[in-house]
Amino acid sequence: MSIKKSGSAVWQGGLKDGKGTVSTQSGALQDVPYSFAKRFEGEAGSNPEELIGAAHASCYSMALSLILGEVGMTAERIATEAKVSLEEVEGGFAISAIHLDTVAKIPGADEAAFQDSADKAKEGCPVSKLFNAEITLDAKLEG
């Protein structure tokens, strides 16, 4: 099976004075603005790193749900945040690390089985496999 999804971007102008928009095939994002200031100077708005974080968090949460199901657990809720680190390196910038913070509410969950599932999801998530970055995880069960 092969599934193809797409995202697109349009950029106009130079790096620092230019601006762009990003869209997704589904229309969930449509002409969302991004710019140098939004990416590097903290200006409000979208940027590639937050989009990568959202993609990773959503993929990881789905992967964790799958793996939990394989060990007989069903989460009422899985909340994941992916913190993407963009670092200046020799020759430019690189995404050096992504840290996943996930909290799951699973009635009657076994802590050891949950932690094992969380680690397997981190390694097995298709988006995790995409990155050449250190991926770390803190996984917690919610009471």
Automatic annotation (TrEMBL):
<dbReference type="InterPro" id="IPR019904">
    <property type="entry name" value="Peroxiredoxin_OsmC"/>
</dbReference>
<dbReference type="InterPro" id="IPR052707">
    <property type="entry name" value="OsmC_Ohr_Peroxiredoxin"/>
</dbReference>
<dbReference type="InterPro" id="IPR036102">
    <property type="entry name" value="OsmC/Ohrsf"/>
</dbReference>
<dbReference type="InterPro" id="IPR003718">
    <property type="entry name" value="OsmC/Ohr_fam"/>
</dbReference>
<dbReference type="Pfam" id="PF02566">
    <property type="entry name" value="OsmC"/>
</dbReference>
<keyword id="KW-0560">Oxidoreductase</keyword>
<protein>
    <submittedName>
        <fullName>OsmC family protein</fullName>
        <ecNumber>1.11.1.29</ecNumber>
    </submittedName>
</protein>
<dbReference type="InterPro" id="IPR015946">
    <property type="entry name" value="KH_dom-like_a/b"/>
</dbReference>
<keyword id="KW-0575">Peroxidase</keyword>
<dbReference type="GO" id="GO:0004601">
    <property type="term" value="F:peroxidase activity"/>
</dbReference>
